[in-house]
C-alpha cells in the first residue's frame, strides 16, 4: 500500500486562503511547476530559501510514494521583467555591461545556480526547461489568445486585454484584487502607449533595433512577455490542468495572476488546483538588497568570505537554519541565528550516530509508532518543517534516555525508530551528516583522548582543580566532554 493512502496531507492554497486536503487530479501522480530563476546574476539567498521550500515539498511527496513530475524552469530569454513592459531586460543589460553574448551570461549564472543548489543538497527537478527552448510554444499560445478575442496586436506588439477578459473571468482573484480598483489607482495612458488599458500586459514585444535577443513571429521580430513562458512550459509538461504551482510570494501579482489569465483565455479552464507561495528572507531584520550592502550570497556563507557572519557555515547548517521556519513565514537571517542553528544541527547528528550504537531490549517503554505519526502530522500540516524538527528533537531526547538505560526498545521498535529518524532527517529534510573522518580528525581525536585520560587520572587522584581545568579549557576550544557509564566521550 502506498504511504499516501495512510496519510492525509493538507496544503495551504493561496487561491482559497485556506488549508485544503490534497487530492491529486490523477491518483498516485502529482504534477508540480515552480517558477525558476532569471539567470542574469548569482543566485541570492532568498532564491535558495524559496527553492529549498519546494525541494522539501518534492521530497515529501516522493516519500509519500507519489509519482511526482517536478518542473522548474530557467528564464534565459531577453524580456522585460516588470508589469509596465518598459525598460531594458536584465540579461541584455548584463551582456552589454560585461561585453558578453547574452547566452554567455545565461550559461555563467545557470552553472552558478546549479552549483549552489547541489551544494545545498537539492534534488534535481524532473524537467528543467528553458524559456528560449519554448519560443514556438509561446507564439502558438499568443495565436490562440488572439483567436479567442482576448489578445490584440498593435504596431508589432501583442497585448492581453485584461478588461475584456474580466467581463467573463475574474482577473485578480489570486492576489485579492479587483479590476475596478486597479484601474482607479493607475495613471492614464499618455497617448504614446499601444495598450488599450493600463492593466493590459505584453504577450509579445516588438524589438527595438538595439535589442539583442529577438525571434521572428507573425507580428514582428521581437521577444515574449515575462508571464508567457511559464504558461507555455507548465502546460506542455503537465497539461492544461495540473496539481501544484509554486513560487515566491513576490510572484503572486502580477506574474501568477497573469499566468492564470493566459491559461483561461487560451484553454477555457483554470490551470492549477493548489497555488503555493514561499515567503521572503530578511537579513538582520531588514530587506536584503545589494544596493544597501545588506546582502549575503549563499557561497559567502560556505566560505566565510563576508563581513556579516563570524565564521563559515556548512550548507547543511544553513539548510537546517532555513527549515526551522515554516515556508510561509518571513525568516530573518543573522549570525546569532545560524550559530544557534549549528548547535542544534550538531545535536541532531550526534544523536543519530549514537542511535546506531544502542542495543535492543526485550520490551519497549516508548510508543515509537505514536512518535512517528507525530512527525507525519507535522509534514501533513502544510509541510510544517519547524514542527517536524521539534518532533525530531523529541526523538533526540528518546535516544539519550535509551543510551542512559532509562528507557528501552525491542528490536522491531528500535528498527522502526532508526528508519524513521533517518527518513525524516535525510530523505525529507535533505540534511547531510557532514562529519569528515580525515587524518586531522584522527589526530584531534587522539589528542583529546590523551587529555581525557589525564583528566581521569586527576580525578582518581582527587585533583579536581586540574580535572576541571582540562574540561573548561576544552570547552573554550569548542570541545564538549560527556561523562557516561561507558566512560568519557567528546564532541566538537
From TrEMBL:
Which parts of the sequence bind Zn(2+)?
35, 230, 255, 259
Q: What is catalyzed by this enzyme? A: tRNA(Cys) + L-cysteine + ATP = L-cysteinyl-tRNA(Cys) + AMP + diphosphate
Q: What is its EC number?
A: 6.1.1.16
Binding site residues for ATP: 290
- Does the entry feature the keyword Transport, yes or no? no
Which top-level group of life is the source organism from?
Bacteria
Gene3D superfamilies registered for this protein in UniProt: Cysteine-tRNA ligase, C-terminal anti-codon recognition domain, HUPs
Identify the InterPro entries for this entry: Cys-tRNA-ligase, Cys-tRNA-synt_Ia_DALR, Cys-tRNA/MSH_ligase, Rossmann-like_a/b/a_fold, tRNA-synt_1_cat_dom, tRNAsynth_Ia_anticodon-bd
Ranges of residues in domain Cysteinyl-tRNA synthetase class Ia DALR: 374-437
Q: Where is this motif: 'HIGH' region?
A: 37-47
Q: Which Pfam families match?
A: DALR_2 (PF09190), tRNA-synt_1e (PF01406)
- Paste the cofactor note: Binds 1 zinc ion per subunit.
In alphabetical order, the GO MF annotations are: cysteine-tRNA ligase activity
Q: Which NCBIfam families match?
A: cysS
Name assigned to this protein:
Cysteine--tRNA ligase
Q: Which organism is it from?
A: Flavobacterium flabelliforme
Lineage of origin = Bacteria, Pseudomonadati, Bacteroidota, Flavobacteriia, Flavobacteriales
What's the name of its gene? cysS
